[in-house]
Specification:
about 90 residues, Arc Repressor Mutant, subunit A
């Protein structure tokens, strides 16, 4: 193993492991909050083009315009009520 690789591995170990990917961060936020808006995701650094890809891959579900939820999150209220509430806040 090269010295450069050893140093990177050591720095990664000291930092507590690898950083979560953008997709992991988006799904975690959607799971935590229930529904998220495009604005919420772009504020934490996730590009809007990723949202369509994540919907295609089955990681997120588009509830309405600009509102997404995690596939793992179960809806307790009608989707329209949650979407309307999310747009107003």
């Amino acid at each position: 193993m090269r010295k450069r690789d050893r140093e990177r591995a050591e720095a990664l170990h000291l930092a507590g492991g690898p950083k979560p990917s953008l997709r992991d961060r988006a799904v975690a936020l959607a799971t935590e909050r229930g529904t998220v808006r495009t604005r919420d995701l772009t504020e934490i650094g996730i590009p809007r083009c990723y949202l369509t890809r994540m919907c295609d891959e089955g990681l997120l579900v588009k509830v309405s315009y600009g509102v997404y939820r995690s596939v793992e999150h179960k809806l307790h209220e009608p989707a329209g009520v949650q979407a309307a509430f999310a747009r107003r806040c």
